[in-house]
């Protein structure tokens, strides 16, 4: 459970105009309930941060190159009609990046965007929620894209796509700037040593 605070009408109108659809801004107030304390496999790997409205971590990053590779595999299924095509937003990310090779994010132990650093907590476990249509509010009755992901992204019983991130706050009394991310900023990955990469690498066919 969360303790919530709803903002006033003026704030909600501003956000509604900004995103082009009616919306309401809610804020999770400070509470012990915000800390992620679940420890069972596949749930809540960010044990250090206070989390709001999420299951496992503060941020989820999706690569457009990885999404494109998934779509190419979906398109190759000639027996499937109609062909399923997914966008990065199907996976409910906070951050979407472009460039690089598909699944490069698997071997990152962190990334730097501008002056902000994020630690990778590993791959995001996927389920039928990726079939949820944000426009209609309904779950699409289809096996895809989960079935295709399961054919080449399954690791120890989990289907991984995208990575979970935790923001590292390095602010000091001298440097109190609010962290800001901007569209188009360069993403600098911190790549794991080769010995670790060989242990966690996922083969994609």
Mean pLDDT across every amino acid position: 79
Question: Total number of β-strand segments?
Answer: 9
β-strand amount: 15-25%
Helix content: 10-25%
* Main sheet: strands, sense, barrel: 7 strands, mixed
Shape: globular
How far is the N terminus from the C terminus? 42 Å
Rg over CA atoms, rounded to whole Å, is 19 Å
Helix and strand composition category: alpha+beta
Low-pLDDT parts are 31-44, 195-205
**Can you write the helix and strand succession as a string?**
EHEEHEEEHEEEH
* Tally of DSSP helical segments: 4
Quick recap of the structure?
This protein has 205 residues and is of the alpha+beta class. 18% of the residues lie in helices and 23% in strands. The model is unreliable at 31-44 and 195-205 (pLDDT under 50).
Give an overview in words.
This protein has 4 helices and 9 strands. It is of the alpha+beta class. Helix content is 18%, strand content 23%. The termini are far apart. It is globular and about 50 Å long. The longest helix is centred in the middle third of the chain and has 12 residues. The C terminus is likely disordered. The strands form 2 sheets. Strands 3, 4, 5, 6, 7, 8 and 9 form a 7-stranded mixed β-sheet that branches. It has a two-stranded antiparallel ribbon with strand order 1-2.
Give the SSE layout.
Blueprint: E1 4-6, H1 9-19, E2 26-28, E3 59-63, H2 64-75, E4 95-97, E5 108-113, E6 116-125, H3 146-152, E7 154-155, E8 158-168, E9 187-191, H4 194-200
Parallel strand pairs: 3-4
Antiparallel strand pairs: 1-2, 3-8, 5-6, 5-9, 6-8, 7-8
